[in-house]
Amino acid sequence: MPDDLLLDAQGVSVGYTPERGDRILAVREVDLRLHQGEFVGLVGESGCGKSTLGFAVTGMLLPPAQLVGGSIVFDGQDIASLSGEQLRQARQGGFALVLQSGMNTLNPVRTIANHFRDLLKAHGSDHSTARERGAELLRTVHLDSDVLDRYPHELSGGMRQRVSIALVLSLEPRLIVFDEPTTALDVVVQAAVMSTIKELQRTQQFTAVLISHDLGTVLEATDRVLIMYAGQIAEDQPAADVLTGPHHPYTEALLSCYADPRADVVHLGGIAGNPPDLSKQIDGCPYAPRCPLVQDICRRIDPPLAPLGRGVAACHVRAPASKELAATAHEVADREH
Ligand SMILES: Nc1ncnc2c1ncn2[C@@H]1O[C@H](COP(=O)(O)OP(=O)(O)O)[C@@H](O)[C@H]1O
Ligand SMILES: [Mg+2]
Fold this sequence. Notes:
Elements: E1 5-16, E2 24-35, E3 39-43, H1 50-57, E4 65-74, E5 77-78, H2 84-92, E6 96-99, H3 112-121, H4 127-140, H5 157-170, E7 175-179, H6 187-204, E8 207-212, H7 215-221, E9 224-229, E10 232-238, H8 239-244, H9 249-256, H10 296-300, E11 306-308, E12 311-313, H11 320-336
Parallel strand pairs: 3-8, 3-9, 6-7, 7-8
Antiparallel strand pairs: 1-2, 1-4, 4-5, 9-10, 10-12, 11-12
Residues 16, 18, 24, 26, 44, 46-52, 64, 278 line the site of adenosine-5'-diphosphate.
């Protein structure tokens, strides 16, 4: 593994097996490589598998979710082979964590100081050290240390989310997945919390993934953007290029939903139709039924990721190498039959 590669996930598939009904394949053979200190965005419509992928790569999947394929190597260690207890220990030792729109993950009957105490106890910190460390961490998220003696309900939504971020930082994770961290907040508070997240990532140099259904939020914060559709990566590009370069038709559709606050005229489009049912087999490109550029091949063969611009995209039309790669793979499959 090259020195600065922190996460190397390959061919990751995650299924949900409900008590009744068909298995939902929420993540389908996804490759995800993260370099140390990188800040990557993961964008797509609701239900496309973003959270599931975030939980998978941090070893935080819970039943009924199950890793059904692929390998996840974090800092040289295959995490799929670790037990629950080994993962818990790895987390205490600075592994990786998901921060959800975490305002409701605080315990209503514990003060904020007690939250820090509980987490840091496992690190061997005593009461006064935990309190000191808590105050210090609260300062990094721009909260006063008197927040330590408050209960969650005494704080605003934005403050609670800042506390959640400070708690996550207390474990000094090397990778943090921020899963829609500001979605539950009002717009002004959203911007302030996002700017703190950006600042922390820059100053503390942890590796981060920002999950959002909103392309605009991600473009403003991250260096590289992964577009996810129906459990797969549709496109992977430098954030700066997404606004200007050639794109996957789905990225284009998402972009048309995003109002650039600096633009004179704002076009707000929606995307007609719905993503496919993930409990069914998908033939061809999953976006084909909604795609304005659809061709015959798109309905038959799922395009693999192929070079496009400075990144990759899975599109027979826009990334022509997808077509060649798919055709070769198809021929091989035919010959083997
Ligand atoms: N606990 C669960 N049981 C069954 N299906 C689930 C569960 N959680 C998520 N799913 C399904 O997995 C798919 C991906 O979900 P998710 O990863 O939450 O998407 P996103 O975060 O992009 O909105 C969806 O189709 C969703 O219905
Ligand atoms: Mg989600």
